[in-house]
Design brief:
The protein has a single domain, classed as OB fold (Dihydrolipoamide Acetyltransferase, E2P) (Beta Barrel). It is built from 3 helices and 11 strands; from the N terminus they run αβββββαββββββα. The chain has helices spanning about 5-15, 70-75, 150-160; strands spanning about 20-25, 30-35, 35-40, 55-60, 65-70, 85-90, 95-100, 105-110, 115, 130-135, 140-145. A 6-stranded mixed sheet has the order 8-1-2-11-10-9, with no helix packed on it.
Length: about 170
Amino acid sequence: MQSAHDKKREVADAQEEEEFVVVRLEDEYFAFDVADVAEVLPYSEPVRMPRAPKFLVGLVEVRGIMLPVVDLRLRAELSATQRPRHVLAIRLGERFIGALVDEVCEVYSAEAASVGSVASLGDKLDAQYVSRALRWGQRLVPVMDAVRLLTTDETLRLKRLRSPRRRKGEKQN
């Protein structure tokens, strides 16, 4: 039988653990904080949009809502040699974007000691998109910072796509 002290210690240890969604892009592995991933969807071909910014590969419909989709391989500067298998619905504050990934490997619970600073990654990825590094088995995996996946300019351009300017004399719905 456990003592009250042991139970408190277990609760404290559990609170120090964090969960991550580990994904593969080509031959590289990345992670997202599980709180940033709203849903993992099977891949469906995004519908291209005319005059869409380069970072936006298109839109996919998710239960009647059009989700803008970015290809994470572009952010990681990887070539796309295979078709992605999943779309992650990523939370960006109050909005969502889809992120193409080749494979969702697992939801991984990591102890606080397994999560470190970005400096330990070296030149693996632009630190602009990465918040931390995760020790996943024998690998050191960059943890993507969901909020920084899009630059401020890209976020503004995406908002403009969603709310087109009304022409003079047009009524607001």
